[in-house]
Amino acid sequence: MALSPEEASTVGKVISCKAAVIWAVGEAPVIEQIEVAPPEAGEVRIRIAYTSICHSDLHVWKNQNTKGLHPRILGHEAAGIVESVGEGVTDFQQGDHVLPIFMGECKLCAFCTSPKTNICSNFPVNPMRGTRVIDGKSRFSIKGQTLYSCYGSTFSQYTVLEHQSLVKINPAAELDKVLLLSCGASSGLGAVWKTAKMEPKSSVAVFGLGTVGYSVAEGARVAGASRIIGVDINPSKFELGKLSGFTDFVNPNDSERPVEEVIQQLANGGVDYSFECVGNTKLMESAFNSCKPGGSTIVLGVTASRVAKMELTPSSLLAGRSIVGCLYGGWKLSDIPDLVERYQRKVRSSSHNN
């Protein structure tokens, strides 16, 4: 999916293209013709080849705190091709295949140089920013009016990002598949492999069967889990879940008992690891209480409210249970090319076997 000659000639010029614009909180997006400015120093302009909707996009869409940041363009789970680079950018060039990531990695701050976190202090997750870091301005406009960004603003045919929030990947990778590694799939796999560091033969409960939940199950299956219990109120997700490695399913609506009690019975006193993939504080509590003494709960779900709270009893912690959260599965951006290569090896192996 190389750039066309027409696209290759747009360097340094404003590009007119289509984007899904949100004009006010909660309003349906409108496909509009917009203008995308060239990248400034340290930035990269990319053509979005494929994008998808993540649930956190919906959180931002409905967030009343973003009233002053409209009109705006949402979207962050995507894959694209570099159209041009700004001054000083040496690690990307025109035609590179890339994944935009909703967080950054400057590789210089105390957080980036620490193996304990993937949060960058210079390019943290910030859906409220709405503009670029270098000058506090937007690269989007519509009929002379400022259009605000959000994460990567991938619901546009072209977008501009700091190079610290992009990952260059193998051009042989199918962009319509690996785009999920820019958010959902990586989040689930990393929660198992990077954050939990799950041991073989572990028992697992996964709360919420969407892209992230299925990816958690896949990661647990590859890691050698002995039992993977899926929890969701939508029974149609159970059949698909078998392909990801689920061995059991629990629909909380099918029992009068709390879901944690059902899981405790299924898993002989509780699971070794539980993963909350929805962003619901009550589910976080249930996930924590589903673990056996010494078990660990990993929270991946993003809550709609920054002040949401959950309740845990000190006695549960004294029993050796732990709870930890992770963004993007704990991966740093520099980890992602290897993750894409791991996927590519699986694709090549499957093609060879067929």
From TrEMBL:
Q: Which GO terms describe its cellular component?
A: cytoplasm
Record-listed E.C. numbers:
1.1.1.1
Catalytic activity annotation: a primary alcohol + NAD(+) = an aldehyde + NADH + H(+); a secondary alcohol + NAD(+) = a ketone + NADH + H(+)
Q: Does the keyword Zinc apply?
A: yes
Lineage: superkingdom? Eukaryota
Which keywords annotate this record? Cytoplasm, Metal-binding, NAD, Oxidoreductase, Zinc
Q: Which residues form the Alcohol dehydrogenase-like C-terminal domain?
A: 212-342
Could you say which protein family the record assigns here?
A: Belongs to the zinc-containing alcohol dehydrogenase family. Class-IV subfamily.
Q: What is this protein called?
A: Alcohol dehydrogenase 1
Query: Species name for this entry?
Result: Riccia fluitans
